[in-house]
Structure formats: C-alpha cells, structure tokens
Structure to design on (73 residues):
C-alpha cells in the first residue's frame, strides 16, 4: 500500500505570504488536510516535485519559522 497521495488532481493554493513578483513562494493542496497530509510545492515549478508532510510535522515547521529558528541570511 502506498502512503504517497495522488496529487495529479490536487488544487493548489499559493501562500498568503507570496508577493506578486513571482518570488520565493510555495503552494499547498488543502484538500489533503482532512487526511492529515500537507502537500507543498514550489509555485515557480508547478510540474516539479511536491513534498508531503504530516500535519503535525508541518505545524512544527511553521512554528519554528515564526520563531526565527531558521536563519535567512
């Protein structure tokens, strides 16, 4: 049994932090959230790979980003 979701028909939503310049931004597929999955991809490469996180792992990542745990420089 595969644990990788079929993302071929996923509806992607661009991050609310995205700017209109097409800069560094991500998209996610909220339709998988009910199953506990958070698929994420680079909005500049929609045909490229997507990463899928558990909801718990994604919440932990977002919390760390908000606290500045990952340096940006």
């Amino acid at each position: 049994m595969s644990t990788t979701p079929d993302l071929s028909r996923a509806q992607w939503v661009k991050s609310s932090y995205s700017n209109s310049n097409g800069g560094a931004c991500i998209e996610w597929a909220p339709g998988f959230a009910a199953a506990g999955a958070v698929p994420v991809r680079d909005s500049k490469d929609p045909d490229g790979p997507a990463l899928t996180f558990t909801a718990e792992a994604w919440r932990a990542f977002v919390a760390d980003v908000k606290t500045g745990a990952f340096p940006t420089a």
